[in-house]
Amino acid sequence: MITQEGDRLLFDGPVTIATVSALLAQVRALLVPGASVLDFKGVTEVDSAAVALALECMREARRRKLALSLANLPEAMRHLAELYAVSDLLQADPA
User: Fold this and answer.
1) Which of 14, 18, 21, 79 has a CB 3.0–4.6 Å from the CB of 45, allowing a cystine?
2) Total structural domains in the chain?
3) What is the pLDDT at residue 69?
C-alpha cells in the first residue's frame, strides 16, 4: 500500500512480485507535481520486483518531467541493486 504525506509517497508492507503490479498502479496515480520522494521506510519484505518497481517509477517520473528521489531503501533492496549492477540508478537519500 502507498500513502501520500506531503511530498512523500510512503510504501507500507511487502514490495514483491505478488504486490508490485498494484503498487505501480498506485504510484502512477499519485505521481504528480509535488510528489517528489518515494519512501521505502515502511517496507517489510522485498524481492527483485522491488528493484524493477523503483526503476520503473524513476522512468515514469522522467517521462512526466518530474524530479523524483528514493529514500530509506531496505538493505536487501540495495544488495539486489548491486547484484544487478543498477545501484547507481537507485541513488537514495538517507531519509
Assistant:
1) 14
2) 1
3) 95
- The three-class DSSP label of residue 14 is strand
| Predicted pLDDT at 91 | 75
Q: Would you say residue 53 has pLDDT above 80?
A: yes
Angle at which helix 48-63 crosses helix 20-30, to 10 degrees, equals 20
Query: What is the pTM assigned to this prediction?
Result: 0.91
Q: Backbone phi, then psi, for 58, in 5-degree steps?
A: -65, -40
Query: 32: number of CA atoms within 13 Å, CB side?
Result: 5
Q: And the C-alpha cell for 60?
A: 515514469
* CATH number of domain containing 13: 3.30.750.24
Tell me which amino acid residue 74 is.
P
Mean pLDDT throughout 66-86?
95
Q: Domain span at residue 67?
A: 2-88
